[in-house]
Amino acid sequence: MSAAVPRDVVDRLRVAGCVYAEEEAALLVEAAGSAAELDAMVAHRAEGHPLEQVLGWAELAGVRVAVEPGVFVPRRRTTLMVREAVARCEQAHGVPVVVDLCCGSGAVGLAVVSALDGPAELHAADLHPAAVRCARRNLAGRGTV
Q1: pLDDT digit of tens for each residue in the chain (145 aa)?
Q2: I need a surface site. Which of 32, 43, 52, 113 has the fewest CB within 10 A?
Q3: DSSP string, 74-92
């Protein structure tokens, strides 16, 4: 554990049941802009909020995307779907078209087009206003939502 991570933060997370308390504490310390913000973030995490939503971001296939409450947090197991989509796009003739339906944060579509060597056309759609807002932020300049 880094000296920059306060022991009480780790202890609060561990008591709350966070299995990876040291790693989560380090991420929270890095993300917090002040001691008060860190305290609030630790409290939210200890209440059971997903770490990614407390941090405001998640990572999928090496791409960091913004997430917010009400938006599905991309899961590590989704990386397989990204790899399969990339493989199919690489077999396409011309510019591949990537469609991310029920896109949530837009993480899957963004991870796919980010992994491609060349250009791709990306379209994402969702019905939930929070998801649409989040996807627009993540896909700005990369695709349409």
Answers
A1: 444 889 999 999 999 999 999 999 999 999 999 999 999 999 999 999 999 999 999 999 999 999 998 898 999 899 999 999 999 999 989 999 999 999 999 999 999 999 999 999 999 999 999 999 999 999 999 999 9
A2: 43
A3: P-GGGHHHHHHHHHHHHHS
Nearest CA to 144 among 117, 92, 109, 114? 109
- Residue from 113, 71, 74 nearest 96 by CA: 113
Query: Which parts of 5-145 are beta strand (E)?
Result: 57-60, 63-66, 97-101, 121-125
pTM: 0.85
> Could you give the count of Cα atoms lying within 13 Å of 121 in the half-sphere of its Cβ?
6
